[in-house]
Design brief:
The chain has 332 residues and is of the alpha+beta class. It is built from 11 helices and 12 strands. It has helices at residues 8-23, 59-62, 69-86, 106-122, 173-182, 188-195, 201-210, 223-234, 249-254, 258-266, 283-291, and strands spanning 41-44, 48-58, 90-100, 127-134, 139-149, 164-168, 213-218, 237-241, 274-278, 297-304, 309-313, 316-319. Bound molecules: magnesium ion (MG). Magnesium ion (MG) binds at residues 39, 83, 86, 217-218, 220.
């Protein structure tokens, strides 16, 4: 008999999550708790939700050689807060579990802690606990808590046909850093900017209060991959206008042609901006609200009835590819 022994590398991270989610039961969810499938879990507290999210990074997969311990410390806090932001939450605190090689220098550990403190305090919270264990490679896992009003929560579901799709900030910084690393042209600044993610915590809270947002997620795995995830979740399609996508300066510095530019802004992770669908009649208000806190919000396309994701370029229309960063699918 033929037995199929699938490996995680054959199915990828998202299917792996589906397998786990199908086994775990949802019978005992506390009241209106929101479980697996959004950027955070949300526990029902009556008028509000307690948001909980966890994110792990490991030396081999996430931390480029030459990264400073301060930047690594910043990064583990920042990526967790980005998930709190994706749901419109106000961060409350974070715990961090550290897997540490025993040969790690004490100075490295001190600077790692400094970096964690810097990021947490930038967003008005503290690291409130954690755990340390001996481990063969540096592995950090953060678990962040936040709170959001039930009326204000932003979720991955809710996109409506006709909504404007918009992103905060500029895209491609993460992608350009990967390119530089691959070409071995990276500088200390490249690695610094890759790890010094600035989660859109303030922008998200401001947007959540406008009631203009129909759905939201953070773009940790790349724009195209995020679009596909939202499309599947909401049973809609997206029409993205390539020329409207706001591009990070680093992309222009390194890309040599349009294909490379597209790779960096569409198909690479690591940007941690917010991707939102916004009621068409409220888009100006949303842009203004984000501008008032010093950030840009840029419309890049529309939600469509046709369940296809397309890219409009100067040459016409083409299919947006369903690719981006996905764990387990990388090189093995
Ligand atoms: Mg996320």
């Amino acid at each position: 008999m033929l037995t199929i022994d699938l490996k995680l590398k054959d199915i990828g991270e998202r299917e792996a999550i589906e397998i786990i989610a199908n086994i775990l039961d949802t019978e005992h969810l506390f009241k209106d708790t929101i479980g697996i499938g959004d950027d955070c879990a949300a526990l029902d507290l009556g008028e509000r939700y307690l948001l909980v999210t966890t994110d792990v990074i490991a030396e081999k997969t996430h931390i480029p050689r030459g990264a400073s311990p301060k930047d690594i410390g910043w990064h583990i806090i920042a990526i967790n807060l980005s998930d709190i932001a994706a749901m419109g939450g106000r961060p409350l605190g974070i715990v961090v579990a550290l897997g540490l090689p025993k040969i790690l220098s004490v100075n490295f550990l001190k600077e790692l802690a400094e970096g964690m403190k810097d990021c947490a305090s930038e967003f008005g919270i503290s690291v409130i606990g954690g755990d340390t264990k001996e481990h063969e490679q540096l592995t950090l896992c953060g678990t962040a808590f936040g709170v959001v009003g039930k009326e204000e929560i932003m979720r991955r579901e809710g996109a409506k046909v006709g909504d404007v799709i918009a992103v905060t900030g500029k895209l491609g910084r993460g992608g350009s850093a990967y390119y530089a690393l691959e070409r071995k042209t990276e500088s200390k600044k490249t690695i610094h900017s890759l790890l010094r993610v600035f989660p859109r915590v303030i922008e998200a809270q401001v947007l959540a209060k406008t009631s203009s947002v129909n759905c939201c997620m953070d773009i940790s795995d790349g724009l195209a991959s995020s679009i596909y995830q939202l499309g599947k979740r909401n049973d809609v399609g997206f029409e993205i206008d390539l020329e409207k996508i706001p591009i990070a300066k680093e992309v222009n510095d390194i890309s040599t042609n349009e294909d490379e530019l597209k790779e960096m802004i569409l198909y690479h992770g690591g940007d941690y901006e917010l991707l939102l669908t916004i009621k068409r009649e409220r888009i100006k208000e949303a842009i203004e609200a984000v501008k008032n806190v010093g950030t840009s919000l840029t419309p890049i396309g529309l939600v469509t009835k046709k369940k296809e994701n397309v890219l409009i370029t100067s040459k016409g229309m083409e299919a947006l590819e369903n690719k981006g960063y996905e764990h387990f699918r990388g090189e093995v």
